[in-house]
Every structure is written in C-alpha cells, then in structure tokens.
Amino acid sequence: MSFIVAVDGPAGSGKGTITKEIEKRTGLINLDTGATYRCFALEVLRHGYTPSDTQHILNLLDNIDIKIENEGMKDIILLNGKDVTDEIRSTEVTEASALISTIIEVRNKMVELQRKMVGNKNVIVEGRDIGTVVFPHADLKIYLDADDEVRAQRRYKEYIEKGINITYDEVLEQIRWRDENDKNKQVGALKKAEDAIVIDTSNMNIEEVVEKVKNMINQKLKEKEENNMENIER
Fold first, then answer.
1. CATH code where residue 105 lies
2. Measured between alpha carbons, how far is 27 from 23 in angstroms, rounded to an integer?
3. In whole angstroms, what is the distance from residue 175 CA to residue 147 CA?
4. pLDDT tens per residue, the chain (234 residues)?
C-alpha cells in the first residue's frame, strides 16, 4: 500500500527545496510530475510538431511510455525506454511543456501516468493541484505559503547567485503575476485542498520547514501503520 504526501503552494514558497530534502531524510520518493509534461513535450518536438498542432499532439498520447527510476538520490527519466533526464531540461522543451500542459487531454493523460507511477511506492509530490486533482486521496496534504515579498526576495537571491541581471522589483512583479495566473488557470490552477495543512514559511528557514514537514509525515505514517494493524487483527 502506497503512502502519498501532496505538497502544493505558490511559486517561491519552497516546495521544490522542501520535497528534495524530505526525500533525502525520509526515504520517500520525490515524484517529479513536471518531468512527465517535459517528456511529452520532447516527444512532440521530436515529431516536428509545435504546441499549436493540437490534433497531431493528441494522436501521440496513446503511444507514449514514461517512467521515473530512482538511483540513489538521482531520478532517471525514461521516455519510451530511453534516458532523457538531461534532454528534457532544455529551454526549447521547457517552453513547449508550458504550452502543451494547458491542453486538457494532455493533462488528463499525464495525471493518469503519474498515478500509475506511484503504484505501491511511498512518495512526496509537489505542484499546484496535487492535493485537489492529481492525488485527492493523499495521506497527507500540505499547502506551503509565504508573503509575496518574502517569496520574491528568495527568488531574487537565486537569480543573483546564478548571475541573472534582474531587479528585486522585477522579480516581485513576476511573482505577483504568476500568483494571479496560477490561480486562474483553466487547467491545473493553484488550489488549496480543504483538508490541507497550511504552513506559512515567511518567517521560517529551510531547516525549520523540513523538520516540521518530517514530523508531520512520521506522525501520519505511524497512524497509518496502527490502522493497518487494527484492520489485520479484525
């Protein structure tokens, strides 16, 4: 039986960083749902189609196989049996993925694949609608949030460290635009599940958030194990 932790939240709330740390410290597999869209975008580009070639794109959906294998702390992404881990991170694939992921039929197919990938594994998954759409029956749902100015400061710091020339005000504007856009997407909108536990990370460092999430996971795992034992005894 699988154990699923769903982590949702706006850009800059720390979802990616936290899920990766949780994977290292708990043994839960960090399922990269974004990789499935990138794989499909790569397949579309390989066929010479553009994101606007909707019918051609839909014809590819039934003949695509995507797997994510874990080797230590590294994920190996397989598209139709071949390693595309590095190839799907190109700028061209990233841009195509953003457009293709808005097609409802594509999203439905990717959600179906993501659910199959979990199987009986214990996973932690982050995104915008993981706890509401992808895994609505997740064992634990967490919504990470933070003030937009705090999230902008974090993202600005990341950009500066990467040598990207941008001002804090520009990053803040991007964050606010992203928030509005994510919440109003027709497909895959940012939503907080009714039973999600909200963690405001505005005044917390990474270690504090990781410890809080880890403790919540351990508690849920303990409760699930106790429930399973009770069911067996019956």
1. 3.40.50.300
2. 5
3. 10
4. 789 999 999 988 999 899 999 999 998 988 888 889 999 999 999 999 988 899 999 999 989 999 888 776 678 899 999 999 999 988 899 889 888 988 999 999 999 999 998 988 899 999 889 999 999 999 999 999 999 999 999 999 988 998 989 999 999 999 999 899 888 888 888 989 999 999 999 999 999 999 999 999 999 999 988 887 777 776
142: three-class secondary structure by DSSP = strand
- Rounded distance between C-alpha atoms, residue 213 and residue 180, angstroms: 27
**DSSP-assigned states of every residue in 82-126:** EE-TTGGGSHHHHHHHHHHTTSHHHHHHHHHHHHHHHTT-EEEEE
Six-digit token pair at 60? 């590819």
- Candidates 114, 148, 99; CA nearest to 36 is 114
Q: By three-state DSSP, how is residue 181 classified?
A: helix
- Token pair of 208, please? 């504090």
Tokens of residue 107, six digits: 């999203």
Contact 182, 128 (CB under 8 A): yes
Give the domain extent around 162.
3-233
Give 62: exposed, middle or buried? Use CB within 10 Å, 0-12, 13-18, 19+: exposed
Residue that is written with structure tokens 């895959």 in the block:
188
What pairing do the DSSP bridges indicate for beta strands 140-145 and 3-8?
parallel
Q: How many domains does the chain have?
A: 1
